[in-house]
TrEMBL record:
MF (Gene Ontology): symporter activity
Membrane topology: Multi-pass membrane protein
Pfam families (UniProt xref): Sugar_tr (PF00083)
Protein name: Major facilitator superfamily (MFS) profile domain-containing protein
Transmembrane segments: 38-64, 88-107, 219-237, 243-262, 274-293, 313-334, 355-374
Length: 409
């Protein structure tokens, strides 16, 4: 399990495909009393990955700044941008991401399939016991069970829609809405910090100074709000429950977005900038002590073993779709209404103030759709997915038709 947490540390660099695998593996190995904390801890390692990415950018920017002394854009536009060596900066930073990706791939290939999948879906009790023995480092006896030939419902069936359709709608919509707001905030922090004057205008810096200032601001936000938010979820998720934390997170994200947006002109004044940064940081804190963590946890707990990773992957894919909407939508929407202040090549937008209002509305709808998601706190995976009920119902139906079968343990 420590290896899985190591995966998630590096996944902060952006290997989203491992989301359903990491969550499902941890959910199926953890016990019901502390399952939420274990899954949330896997996800929380992303925070350290985010910080690591910022630190790498700071180190590279500092090294290049000491080696190459160049003027600001305002002093000499040509000299501040076109130094050939600067083209290596983004390449070096990006290249660091290949190392954790390779390590993740290597260790993922070494991990066995989960015992629940092997026993319940692959129908190989012996292999499941062997894999569990390796992971838990204990000797387990193999109990042979009769093969269950009863057909199970698939993802695109009426049975799934009846049992879990609303649950899947809840996990996909909340993750989609959360990522619209979350990735908008992450990807365009520099625009917001520049607008309030926390980062100097681009003309007053050269390319390396701009990279350093932005990386420093984003790393500070991660250190002071993002990472603590993740670990607050780890600490409280099995006490408060997933539903309460997600609802609370969306609520406070909505409140702080509106608190920043409505009096936006007030926050742009120099004496109020610190207050803006503090409140902006709190939106990240409650995103992570809230839906950013719980949308990762819940899909790994509420669906049947044979569909658990698939449904988690669908939910995560909906989230990434939201990230695309947020990234490109905010990119255009946040442009100034004044054509003279719009970035070159972009049409006029609705401005940062109205964009923040829109994100507040998105968070509000995230709070509404949270009511579609069940509370799995303190319940076994089989109890949440209804797999035991499914087997019992099928056994009764077959008994009534005069057909006998053995239900596997």
């Amino acid at each position: 399990m420590a290896t899985l947490c190591f995966f998630r540390f590096w996944l902060g660099f952006g290997i989203g495909g491992d989301y359903p695998l990491s969550a499902t593996i941890m959910s199926e190995y953890a016990n019901k009393k502390t399952r939420g904390a274990f899954i949330a801890a896997v996800f929380a390692m992303q925070g350290f990955g985010i910080m690591a990415g910022g630190i790498v950018a700071l180190i590279v920017a500092t090294a290049f700044d000491h080696k190459y002394k160049v003027p600001s854009y305002e002093e000499n536009a040509h000299a501040s941008l076109v130094l050939p060596a600067f083209d290596y900066v983004w390449r070096i930073i990006l290249m660091f991401g290949a190392v954790p990706a390779a390590l993740t791939y290597y260790w993922r290939m070494k991990m066995p399939e989960t015992a629940r999948y092997t026993a319940l879906v692959a129908k190989n009790a012996k292999q499941a016991a062997t894999d569990m023995s390796k992971v838990l480092q204990v000797e387990l006896e193999v109990q042979e069970v009769a093969e269950d030939k009863t057909p199970k419902f698939g993802l695109f069936t009426k049975q799934f829609a009846k049992r879990h359709g609303m649950h899947l709608l809840g996990t996909t919509t909340t993750w989609f809405l959360l990522d619209i707001a979350f990735y908008s905030q992450n990807l365009f922090q520099k625009d917001i910090f520049t607008a309030i004057g926390w980062i100097p205008p681009a003309k007053e810096m050269n390319a390396i100074h701009e990279l350093y200032r932005i990386a420093r601001a984003q790393t500070l936000i991660a250190m002071c709000s993002t990472v603590p938010g993740y670990w607050f979820t780890v600490a409280f998720i099995d006490y408060m429950g997933r539903f309460a934390i997600q609802l609370m997170g969306f609520f406070f994200m909505t409140v702080f977005m509106f608190a920043l947006a409505i009096p936006y002109d007030h926050w742009t004044k120099k004496e109020n900038r610190i207050g803006f940064v503090v409140m902006y940081s709190l939106t990240f804190f409650f995103a992570n002590f809230g839906p950013n963590a719980t949308t990762f946890v819940v899909p790994a707990e509420i669906f049947p073993a044979r569909l658990r990773s698939t449904c988690h992957g669908i939910s995560a894919a909906a989230g990434k779709a939201g990230a695309i909407v947020g990234a490109f939508g905010f990119l255009y929407a946040a442009q100034s209404k004044d054509p003279t202040k719009t970035d070159a090549g972009y049409p006029t937008g609705i401005g940062i103030k109205n964009s923040l209002i829109m994100l507040g509305v998105v968070n509000f709808f995230g709070m509404v759709f949270t009511f579609l998601v069940p509370e799995p706190n303190g319940k076994s995976l089989e109890e949440m997915s209804g797999e035991n009920e499914e087997d019992d119902a099928e056994a009764i139906e077959m008994a009534g038709s005069g057909t006998a079968r053995t239900v596997p343990v």
